[in-house]
UniProtKB/TrEMBL annotation:
The modification N5-methylglutamine is found at residue 196. Keywords: Cytoplasm, Methylation, Protein biosynthesis. It comes from Candidatus Tokpelaia hoelldobleri. Pfam families: PCRF, RF-1. This is Peptide chain release factor 2.
Amino acid sequence: MRERQQLEDAIAGITQLTRTLDDSVELIAMGEEEGDAAIVEEAENAIRGLKAEIDKRQIDMLLSGEADANDTYLEVHAGAGGTESQDWASMLLRMYTRWAGQHGMKVEVMEVHDGEEAGIKSATILVKGHNAYGMLKTESGVHRLVRISPYDSNARRHTSFASIWVYPVVDDNIEVAVTEADVRIDTYRASGAGGQHVNTTDSAVRITHIATGIVVQCQAERSQHKNRAAAWAMLRARLYEEELKKREEAANETAASKTDIGWGHQIRSYVLQPYQLVKDLRTGVENTDPQGVLNGDLDAFMEAALALRVHGGGETVEDID
């Protein structure tokens, strides 16, 4: 029923766009025939007004993968560099949380490992909303920050790295075969705030998939049973994401080099000093307002990266018309 509703909405939207375009073209022809410049101008403005809706439909076209509409997990991991990189990881976590909020999506924190002095070593969040995975999947990779470090008494410029990993929530329509014999399950005490119960019982759960080495962990709940169930869901999602990645690489070996996901593959630079610039190294998209980007203004980067995946080139959404 959900798929049917989405298809009906898409068809109705295209039908309305076509009708408005046809009516406007007829008005222009009539206005030119009658020498009525006002009618021509009104119709031309109506056609220009279609651009925003067409752009939105283009993005929907790019989000046609089998899991694109699903909710998604997003992991943040600080790179080498201690406090500076851990602070950068917390900035990225805030950036994606703000992006999700701006798009009406909900965010649940699955687990957080705080840094010793500031920031975080790692964190996993669950982003719930239509096309959450489809939009965020292009953010997987290494993100670089260049700034004057607030933790350096000599006010020197530092370069920090943090990685993002995105994988979809597996819904009931997708089966992933994995049994307890395929994994190792460990329990441990959760870290951070949460009260006496959290810190004194082995409620946190870590599951390691032996064949692939994939590790997931959850400490969001006070109950070990709930954390175990959430960790199993995360593991199935990670395994499914691995399968999607293999399919994509097999289908397009040329594009695979551009879409590889992994530590050491830098996708975007955020420069706060000595100039202000955020640049995506895959698409060439730039933004001279880093604070706006860090506050969640990511759509232009995501749309261009989606177009790159679909078309295998460096076009932005505006170029593909």
